[in-house]
Design goal:
407 residues; mainly alpha; ABC transporter transmembrane region fold; ATP binding
Length: 407
Amino acid sequence: MFRSFFPAPKLFFGSAAVWAALCFLIWFTIGPALQSVISLDPILTPNQGDDPTPFLTNQKVWLYQYVIMGTYLFCVPWYFIDRHRYYWWSVLGSATIVLMLFANVQVQAWLNDWYGDFFNLLQTALTNPGSIAPEDYWGNLIFVAYVAAPNVLLIVSINFFTSHYVFRWRTAMNFYYMSFWPHLRHVEGASQRIQEDAMRFADGVESLGVNFVYALMTLAVFLPILWGLSEQITALPLVGEIPGSLVWVALLSASFGTVVLAAVGIKLPGLEFNNQKVEAAYRKELVYAEDHEDRAQPQTVKELYLDVQKNYFRLFFHYLYFNLVRSTYNQASNFITLIALGPSILAGAITLGIYQQVANAFGRVESSLQYLVDSWPAIIKLMSVYKRLRKFEAEIPKGSPLPESPV
């Protein structure tokens, strides 16, 4: 699954985690010293006034440079370590997706600041009619359009690039398995494993991986924002004043939902796996019947279909209470911000702009912390696919060399 596309998968992903941690450590320790030596901000932003261009402050330029350097420097050793034909997609392509996600998170952080200023302007306009000039109102909307329009192109580009990325991964898996076809052809549903499960696995891992990286980046950017906004909150209901109160509320809410849903949905991966087994047995009998008249006799078809029905009914039952708990939690989480801000709102301690900033930042932090909650159905299906492919790959002789892909 991974070996066909990534170089030395265990080493690759392990070193990626270590490299990311090292980059964070360097940024918060000797980052300022490095900035004074290698940063391009004196060249790109030589004369900043009191109102610098958004996204191009000295510190922002250095941040962009550092992230780009750190991301692509990680790719260099892998050009020489266990490199194969998919290096440009598996290594460099992964790095490019990370940078595109980083750019999108930066736009979202800027929009959060814009929300604060704009909704304060709205509050002033609504409470004091005629106090806001038309050019200020329309100017703000036009200005945000200049930022939002390129971001739309960025999102479209991410989707386009990741679609090609997934197909390359599927291609690598396809020809990896086909090179061992004599060892695999006798496995139940072998054709489905190669044609369908390879596609599902690549698509599922890419989707979950992109969302996971995006969640981590969102947390890295919005946690400090939410912590700072928490200083504007007078107190939480029942517990009173707590430093970084909104961060703790988001963390507790997401942790509670993750633990509860993991417990409630513990049986679903096994049921999904069994579902594919009974479907494969039924499908195989029908395929044989296309060429052999003695196959797919009524009694055999009835027994096989009853197995399918039994497993589906069990799935429906377990998804019933899983979806009930998940929907209840998601509905309740929509009101957590209003509950947490209740004392501050009633005391008139925050403006509409601050409320909007808090709601947006809290929503992004909580959503990122709820990664497992939101992704749980997809994780269940991916675990089922993974189980099938692991069983499938067990038939490949250990230590077999990586074959060359013909395309």
